[in-house]
């Protein structure tokens, strides 16, 4: 840089460069202010400068959006309904099996001896009795047997278990149909007398008997039917004796309902 020449001088006088007038440099950053906010850190809200007002609401992380789906109460309700459905299915399978096993346990069983009489060995007679036993409607486990002795007595026994449990009214109707059907099947001058009730004994239910009458009016035997809500036992007793034993049906019934009994000693 040169100094201007004084008036009247043609050559300017050089001025030494002391570095005050060097080339302009880049402006430097201003010193930090005591009111300047500190630098932001990751995950923290920015700090507003002093006097600039309250900072805007800041969330360090993006807000989670609520997922759409089934609410919790609906899931619990579905679980309860599924549990009830499973229980109902198991009950539908188990209850019929239980009732079937129970009914089988209550099925009467004819022992080898009854009322002091033994089973007949006559194959033709036994086959006829079995055919008659198999024709019993509305029953399962039907069984028939004939017992004889050396004095001309015959005892036909038929047992079975009802497929469905019967009410008292249904048992009454069943008994009426039994005696009506039996009377219509008689021949050779034998008829059925009036039906009379008997004491059912310890097994309960209904017990009815009717005499077998010859054309002369004399009794040749007796027909009895004992029924409960689940079982039936019928007997046809023929004897040359004029009066059958009134305890026969009770004795036979208790014998066939006792599955552990194989021999029942009765009156001769």
Strand content: 15-25%
Q: What string, H for helix and E for strand, traces the elements in order?
A: EEHEEHEEHEEEEEH
- Decide which structural class fits the backbone: alpha+beta
How much is the radius of gyration in Å?
56 Å
| Helix segment tally | 4
The dominant shape is: elongated
Largest sheet: 9 strands, antiparallel
Percentage of helical residues? 25-40%
The strand count comes to 11
Poorly predicted parts: 259-268
User: What is the CA–CA distance across the termini?
Assistant: 164 Å
- Mean pLDDT comes to 75
Overview of this structure, please?
The protein has 268 residues and is α+β, with helices and mostly antiparallel strands. It has helices spanning 72-105, 123-134, 168-185, 248-257, and strands spanning 2-3, 13-14, 113-114, 117-119, 139-148, 154-162, 190-192, 196-198, 206-214, 219-227, 231-238. The protein is elongated and about 90 Å long.
Topology:
Layout: E1 2-3, E2 13-14, H1 72-105, E3 113-114, E4 117-119, H2 123-134, E5 139-148, E6 154-162, H3 168-185, E7 190-192, E8 196-198, E9 206-214, E10 219-227, E11 231-238, H4 248-257
Antiparallel strand pairs: 1-2, 3-4, 4-5, 5-6, 6-11, 7-9, 8-9, 9-10, 10-11
């Amino acid at each position: 840089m040169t100094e201007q020449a004084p008036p009247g001088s043609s050559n300017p006088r050089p001025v030494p460069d002391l570095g005050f007038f060097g080339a302009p440099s880049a402006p430097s950053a201003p010193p930090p202010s005591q009111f300047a906010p500190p630098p932001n850190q990751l995950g923290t809200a920015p700090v507003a400068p002093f006097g600039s007002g309250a900072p805007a609401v800041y969330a360090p992380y993006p807000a989670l959006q609520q997922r759409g789906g089934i609410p919790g109460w609906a899931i619990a309700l579905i679980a309860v309904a599924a549990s009830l459905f499973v229980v109902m299915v198991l009950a539908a399978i188990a209850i019929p099996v239980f009732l079937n096993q129970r009914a089988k346990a209550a099925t009467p069983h004819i022992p080898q001896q009854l009322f002091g009489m033994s089973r007949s060995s006559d194959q033709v007679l036994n086959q006829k009795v079995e055919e008659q036993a198999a024709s019993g409607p509305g029953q399962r486990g039907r069984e028939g047997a004939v017992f004889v002795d050396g004095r001309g007595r015959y005892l036909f026994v038929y047992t079975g278990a009802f497929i469905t449990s019967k009410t008292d009214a249904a048992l009454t109707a069943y008994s009426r149909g039994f005696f009506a059907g039996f009377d219509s099947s008689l021949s050779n001058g034998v008829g059925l007398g009036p039906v009379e009730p008997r004491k059912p004994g310890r097994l309960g239910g209904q017990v009815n008997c009717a005499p077998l009458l010859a054309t002369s009016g004399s009794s040749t035997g007796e027909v009895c039917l004992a029924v409960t809500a689940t079982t039936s036992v019928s007997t046809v007793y023929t004897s040359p004796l004029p009066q059958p034993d009134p305890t026969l049906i009770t004795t036979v019934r208790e014998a066939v309902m006792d599955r552990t009994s194989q021999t029942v000693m009765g009156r001769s």
